[in-house]
Design a protein that fits this description.
Distance between the termini: 57 Å
Strand content: 15-25%
Radius of gyration: 25 Å
Length: about 450
């Protein structure tokens, strides 16, 4: 077994009863000590996982093969290979858990071993990874041609795989279901503080609710297209947090972050979102896509000096050529932030973006305190109640007029009907987003000419 590739070792580990010893350094011929240590660490983790017989029977070993991507890129593959592999490593790492293992066995072939997910959840994760990578480099690939292989058994010492297309997997399982929603994570037992008081004399502790610790894991990022009404183009995508629930439902935007009260957790979510978005934007930029992306950042992250400095440190690492394509949306700012304080925070972020918008309540009608702060505009979420749409249209006119008096642009989110889109345009809204314009996507797209007539040609949301 000495000198075998990791892919061959993986297959042999499944085919033999006894674990395979780590290959001798002289036989593996690593590029350096760091590579040797990384390989040995990976092999140890793999053997620990593969020692559990339920991995194979549970369908937790999957193979991703990017042959279609390589064929579609043609002669450009040689030039783009390293970028594709780097993007694949990054996308896979974002979708799998710390205890999962992934490695590349060939030129565009990856094996992922899931430590805990069941077959359905693991397959969906792989489908999402493949879809995201292909969209990143091909724009709009045929998902039916992209295959996911799941290890299902052994025959004559070889692994047997079942293959399914990404299109079928996403259609069957449903894109609305969170990939880890069905997997329970055991809550850690609550520690009881020692006490000198006899047990019989202490009052009984009230029982506390113990649920799966998946709160943060269920918050992901999607991108909503923004229609620039004046320029008649979709050239900006709004990065929006999405919180998914085990029943398949989801909420997005500010509502997705409502349950997060720890400022450190919130700052981590904001920072991870910024990093992921900039990395995606950089890949799109290098593939000749041109678009703007709006990134959310919360008041709690910017208000505390330490978390603000940490966030700005990440902003400073964004290359200059990408900053002109970034805008920031300030979320969870309390009403009545003093003009001086708002100006200070806006100016701190100004060097790293083209625009800055503040999310406000829809029926807030006075914005004079925001004049001169450096803000570009305001975003707001319109009510989704179709029965109250007439009242919403009246409020839209007042909202836009109040913003214009403070020299602020407006971005209206949540537009789900043609009539509301017409009302937003008539009111003078700068940007419009919502299901009537376009649904949230995993990856933002190249800018698209979107004329007024195109709104009526699109199918109404169901």
């Amino acid at each position: 077994m000495l000198g075998l590739s990791l892919g061959e070792k993986l297959r042999n580990w499944f085919a033999e009863e006894e674990p395979i010893a780590t290959a001798h350094p002289a036989k593996t011929a690593p590029a350096g000590l760091a590579d040797l240590e990384r390989m040995q660490s990976l092999e140890r983790r793999l053997k620990d996982l593969l020692a559990q017989p339920q991995l194979l029977s549970a369908g937790r070993v999957h193979m991703l093969n990017f042959t279609q991507l390589r064929d579609s890129l043609g002669t450009a593959w040689e030039e783009m290979r390293d970028r594709v592999h780097a993007a694949a490593d990054r996308i896979i790492a974002r979708h799998i858990a710390d205890q999962d293992v992934q490695f590349r066995t060939g030129d565009g072939e990856y094996i992922i071993v899931f430590a805990t997910l069941n077959r359905q959840a693991a397959t969906l994760v792989c489908a999402k990874v493949a879809e995201e990578l292909h969209r990143l480099f091909l724009g709009d690939p045929d998902l039916a041609d992209i295959k996911i292989a799941t290890a299902v058994g052994q025959l004559d010492g070889k692994i047997l795989y079942e293959h399914a297309s990404v299109a079928d997997l996403l259609s069957t399982i449903g894109q609305a279901a969170g990939p880890r929603a069905t997997d329970a994570v055991d809550a850690a037992p609550t520690a009881v503080a020692p006490s000198a008081e006899p047990a019989a004399a202490r009052p009984t502790e009230p029982r506390k609710l113990q649920l799966s610790q998946v709160e943060l894991a269920q918050i992901s990022t999607m991108f909503r297209p923004l229609w620039d009404v004046g320029r008649q183009v979709i050239s900006t995508y709004m990065c929006t947090p999405v919180r998914r629930f085990p029943d398949g439902s989801a909420v997005e935007g500010v509502a997705a972050l409502a349950a997060i009260t720890d400022p450190q957790q919130l700052a981590k979510i904001n920072t991870d979102t910024l990093i992921d978005t900039v990395e995606i934007l950089d890949e799109l930029f290098r593939n000749k896509f041109r678009l703007m992306v709006s990134v959310p950042v919360c008041f709690e992250t910017l208000a505390a000096r330490r978390t603000r400095q940490e966030y700005i440190a990440v902003c400073q690492s964004v290359p200059d050529y990408l900053r002109q394509f970034l805008s920031f949306e300030f979320l969870r700012f309390p009403a009545g932030v003093p003009n001086g304080r708002m100006t200070e925070l806006v100016n701190e972020m100004r060097p790293f973006c083209r625009w800055s918008f503040l999310r406000v309540e829809f029926r807030q009608q006075s914005f004079t305190s925001l004049a001169g702060t450096g803000l570009t505009g305001l975003t707001t979420l319109v009510p989704s109640d179709r029965a109250a749409e007439a009242r919403t249209m009246e409020d839209l006119n007042s909202f836009v007029a109040s913003a214009e008096r403070a020299n602020l642009r407006t971005c209206v989110v949540g537009v789900a009907s043609t009539s509301l889109a017409i009302a937003a345009r008539a009111a003078g809204t700068t940007l419009i987003a919502g299901d009537r314009i376009g649904r949230a996507e995993e990856i933002p797209q190249h800018m698209l000419r979107f004329r007024w007539q195109d709104l009526f040609l699109r199918d109404a949301p169901r």
